[in-house]
Design brief:
This protein is of the alpha+beta class and 112 residues long. The protein has helices at residues 9-26, 33-52, 55-64, 68-81, and strands at 28-32, 90-97, 104-110. Strand 2 (90-97) and strand 3 (104-110) form a beta hairpin.
């Protein structure tokens, strides 16, 4: 059962889309551990889509990722880098707690 992250469904889905887009655009992002664990399977599925590199998979990626230049980067740079790898494209590293509410923080990044 997916985590609700304290948000209504539409807001949660948009937040996850934005975070996955930022992860693919920048290579890493800092967020809470719970959000990082939610982002990981989505990002990995999109990278796997990128490895197929057909018109259909490009359109599927465009339907989820919010920026078209990030889709281009996914298909031209990120996915070819993982051509020989079967999954495990992301890494979550815990990064202490957030000042203010002491939420556990993590860095989620693409594996080199």
């Amino acid at each position: 059962m997916p985590r609700k992250l304290g948000r209504p469904t539409d807001h949660r889905n948009l937040m996850l889309r934005g975070m996955v887009t930022a992860l693919l655009e920048n290579g890493k992002i800092v967020t809470t551990v719970t959000r990082a664990k939610e982002i990981r399977p989505i990002a990995e599925k999109l990278i796997t889509l990128g490895k197929k590199n057909t018109l259909h998979t490009r359109r599927q990626a465009l339907s989820y990722i919010t920026k078209s230049d990030v889709v281009y980067k996914l298909f031209e740079e990120i996915s070819p880098k993982y051509a020989e790898r079967n999954g495990g494209y992301t890494r979550i590293i815990r990064a202490g707690v957030r000042r203010g509410d002491a939420a556990p923080m993590a860095v989620i990044s693409l594996v080199d």
